[in-house]
Amino acid sequence: xxxxxxxxxxxxxxxxxxxxxxxxxxxxxxxxxxxxxxxxxxxxxxxxxxxxxxxxxxxxxxxxxxxxxxxxxxxxxxxxxxxxxxxxxxxxxxxxxxxxxxxxxxxxxxxxxxxxxxxxxxxxxxxxxxxxxxxxxxxxxxxxxxxxxxxxxxxxxxxxxxxxxxxxxxxxxxxxxxxxxxxxxxxxxxxxxxxxxxxxxxxxxxxxx
Length: 209
Fold this sequence. Notes:
It is a single chain. The protein has 209 residues and is α/β, with parallel strands linked by helices. The chain folds into 2 domains: 3-53 and 145-207, CATH 3.30.190.20; 58-142, CATH 3.40.50.790. Helix content is 36%, strand content 24%. The strands form 3 sheets. The chain has a 4-stranded antiparallel sheet with strand order 8-1-9-10, covered by helices on one side. It has a 4-stranded parallel sheet with strand order 4-3-5-6. It has a two-stranded antiparallel ribbon with strand order 2-7. It is globular and about 50 Å long.
């Protein structure tokens, strides 16, 4: 049994039963990186091979794309809906906080940037443009399995790698994949990693490296 498998079993044992399905997350503590230099910072979308356990929430903004996304996406925003959201700061903030990924028709992008960019931008949630004639299903399915990570001003990267209802082997494969993807983005690769911890949403952390 691998160290990761041992850690997965440990966080399961140490976690109390909750009224919601907890996520499984890793925290990668870094060293030897000057984060005052922009070239050492990054944002990365990682498509987990076994999904997130709790799929991402995806919103579609537009007209034709909204019609095509029924039954696939989670939130649907037409032009009229967007007008109402733009007038209500609390509604716009709650929407952006609640949704993981946005897809929008190109004709809406400038409008969204002007009205919601100040909310979406800092949260790294500006929409992915998609032409209205395109099939939105492949992109939506990709986002459902995607976890988004960022290295900004603090030398720690937090990354969702699954859900507690997933099989241990699936979680382990996701962890290995995510660590490899993040390592490739670091200037000195594995030499920039000080330690890696694994935890449930509400549980204690266990070191895996």
